[in-house]
Each structure stands twice: as structure tokens, then as C-alpha cells.
Amino acid sequence: MPSTKPRPLAPLYEQIRQLIVAALAAGEWRPGDALPSEAALAERFGASPGTVRRALDELTAEHLVERRQGSGTFVSTHAAPRQQFRFLRLVADDAAGSFTRELLGCRRMRATAEVARALGLRTAEPVIEVRRLLHRRDRPVVLDELWLPERHFEGLTADVIRNHPGALYALFEARFGVHMVRAEEKLRALAAAPEAARLLQVPEGEPLLSVERLAYTYGDRPVELRRGLYHTSADHYRNELN
Amino acid sequence: MPSTKPRPLAPLYEQIRQLIVAALAAGEWRPGDALPSEAALAERFGASPGTVRRALDELTAEHLVERRQGSGTFVSTHAAPRQQFRFLRLVADDAAGSFTRELLGCRRMRATAEVARALGLRTAEPVIEVRRLLHRRDRPVVLDELWLPERHFEGLTADVIRNHPGALYALFEARFGVHMVRAEEKLRALAAAPEAARLLQVPEGEPLLSVERLAYTYGDRPVELRRGLYHTSADHYRNELN
DNA sequence: CAGTGGTCTAGACCACCAT
DNA sequence: TGGTGGTCTAGACCACTGC
């Protein structure tokens, strides 16, 4: 008789972590909401409080939830001030000033082969393209283009963006229930093409930092492709290695 | 009588973590060595095994130690294959091939104001400057310049570097007892100056990715300033945001 | 097989927050 | 003051490593 495969189960805390992520993806708790207490979750999952705590610690490290002593455990939200620029690593050399946004355009289009491949769509599936500029002290610093699968962002228009006071990711989460969890970026140096040069008010050929980002929501599903051009004469991209 | 300040003590696991870091900085265990077992450390610090485990978990997350089930807890070393390129985020677009090193120079000099400030030295204190090229498939891709305080790297010469087969950080750790723990990088796009263009075999003015790195050893002491110029026509700098 | 880290449990006590 | 998360302890059992 062939021995049945022992099927190495994931540890209990990991299973619980995945169940909580699934509940977040299903919208059982929305960004900003409080999760049940450790004791309540322990009961729900039939585990000891220590095991649930371990799962919540992992989720805290991934920034999916945040814990406040005496208060509770809450679903992370990009609306929180500390999360405002969590994914924007560009900082001024003198660490002064913040960004203002200028919307250049928002239109419906069909996915190019490249966009489709990155987002896991079929070619020519409808996507929404957004273009904008970020300024610091009235100087343009970042030219952003981004593409979103229309099926997750139905109804996203220029007006919707203009009427929202906060960051784009806060809008996505509040209006479309899409919370960005993590992202991968590819950086390189490029010479400014004519249009980028005009918008960023630099000479053609000026070296620019190109930042291509793929952003993921709950369950590691890619939902945004973004291409940024950063003018880095008085700003730099800050990174920590460990 | 004025109330004495309650002096909020750090949690026990954090104190233990700091004591272990101090022992690492003092060289009590060298990179690659095994630490005492959890039980032995618990006895040494007068804490329960669970508390010691928590301290070790934090150190594992910082890559100061690595744990191997059934075997023990070991001091991280840059000699390990997995650590070889831990701080080099440049990867080929087609993810193929590795780097070869070419040493351009190694000389003793006096710290410029900028180098002194970054490394926390007095101006004109002696430092060692190293310059090198990294090639992939016989094409130059990275031009690196780095500066090290001489008092931590006495005896570092071109021959010492040439005679060491592994990565620079592995050499630093094996020969000078300086293990790099973490680093901060500032990235920007620059036009290639004449000398950089010649060495990287690109036209003058070619956009290059400039990467300025400050690397820290145990106890967050900066011990290396590095300036890299990356030619990113077929490579990119990869980053993860979370 | 002895020793190590990995998982899971159970419970005590504390610090903090809201009411 | 009651409920929350944060710390610390104690111990059982398992999985893996190396002799």
C-alpha cells in the first residue's frame, strides 16, 4: 500500500493569518475598523490567545493591521496621516516641504500588452489611465502615469479624483475597496523625452529617475501599474537596506 | 519631596537584545559562530526561555543572527552565499548573470568635509579610498567609490583586496572584524561626467543612477560611505515597498 | 539518540484607553 | 473601572540536525 503523503500543514498561526487576510479581502472588516479582540479571535479560530497573537504580530509587521494598546487592533488605512506617503520614497535633500497634486488626465483605454502582462489581464481588456504631476513649492518634481484594471475601479473619473482631498491610495480604498498592501519598484536613469521635459520644466535629455511600480492588494493580487519620472536635482529617493 | 522620575525601563527582551548586540560588537561571538542555546542564554540573563526567544527573533528579523532548527543560532556572516549580494539591489532586466570585480585603486587619504561628516570623523582624519568597477558579461555596469575610516581598516591595501576571493563585506568582516548590519541609500539620476563615462564606456552625459550609501555596523555606527554610479540600460535597481 | 529550535498552550500581571 | 493589548513566565510536545 503506497504511503499517503503526510501533507505538511502550515503552522496554526500561519493558517489563522491567512484566514484573517481572506476576511480582509472579503471586506468583513474595512480599513479603519477594529478587529475583534485577541480573545474573541482565539475563540473563533479555536486556538489559544498566544497563537492568535502571533498571527496578529505577523500582520502588524506587514502593515495590514495596527495595534493600539488599551484600544484594540485596527485594519490599516491609507487615510491615516502616517500612511500618507508610505509608498513615496522621494524626499527633498533639505527635507523640507510636501507635495501638491495636479491631475493631468484620466481616461478609459485598452490595456497594452505590457500593462496586461503586469496586471494579469488579457490584452485589450479595459483599463483606466491616470496622469498627474506632483509639485513641491510650485516646482514640478514627479510625473506619474498609472494604469488600473477597470473592473476594480468602475466609475473612476477625473472628477472623482479631483473631489477627493487625500492620497490616491486613500481614495482607492474608500471608494473602490481596494487597499494597497505592498509594491515592487524597478528604478533606472533615463533621459527626459520631449513631453516629460516640457511637463517637468527641464531641458530635453535631462537625467530623470524612472520608477516603475507594481502594487498589490490583499492576497498578492496586482492591481496597479505605475510609471513615475522623478526630477532629482533637489530631491532623492531614500531607501533602507537591512 | 519631588517625585523621582519613574524611568521607564525598556522591556526585558529589548534589554537582552541590546546585551547580545553589545556582545557581538565586542567580538564575543564572531560571524559564523554559534551562539549559546536559548536555555543557556536564558540562564545567563536570568530570564525565561520565551523572553530570550523573543530577543533572538528580533535579531533574526534584523539579520544579525540566523536560526537553524535542530542546529542552533548563528551569527550572520557576509561569507554566506545568501548574503553575498544582500546590499546590491541592481539586477539584470533579464535576471541573468552575475558580477565580476575589477579593482581600480586603493589609497590612503585625508577625509574631505563631506566624508568626515558622513562617517562622524574629524575633518582630515585618515581614510582609505577604494575605487572599483563591476562588470556583467564583460560590460562595465557599476563604478563604485568608497571611503573607510582608517582606524577600523588598518592595513587595507590593493593587494589585500585582490587576494580575497569573496565580497568586500566578507573581507571586512573576516580581516577587520567589521560586520555591516544595515545601510541607508540616496538615489538620483545624474549625467555621466567625463571620467565616469570613460570607465563605464558610455557617452558623456549618459543618464546614470547615482547611489550614495552609508553603511552601519553593530550599534548603528557608520563605517563606510560609498558612491556608486550604475549604468541602467540593461539593469535596474529593485526595491520592495511594504 | 541527545540537543536544538519551532509550535502551541495556559495563565499572571501590567500599561494604557475609553467611559 | 472594565476591556484592550504588552510583557513575562512555565512547560508540553514536535521537527530537525548531527553524531
TrEMBL record, chains A, B:
One of its GO terms (biological process) is negative regulation of DNA-templated transcription. Residues 10-78 form the HTH gntR-type domain. Keywords: DNA-binding, Transcription, Transcription regulation. Signal peptide: none annotated. InterPro entries: Bact_HTH_transcr_reg, Chorismate_lyase_/UTRA_dom_sf, Tscrpt_reg_HTH_GntR, UTRA, WH-like_DNA-bd_sf, WH_DNA-bd_sf. GO terms for molecular function: DNA binding; DNA-binding transcription factor activity. CDD domains: WHTH_GntR (cd07377). Pfam families: GntR (PF00392), UTRA (PF07702). PANTHER family: MANNOSYL-D-GLYCERATE TRANSPORT/METABOLISM SYSTEM REPRESSOR MNGR-RELATED, MANNOSYL-D-GLYCERATE TRANSPORT_METABOLISM SYSTEM REPRESSOR MNGR-RELATED. This is GntR family transcriptional regulator.
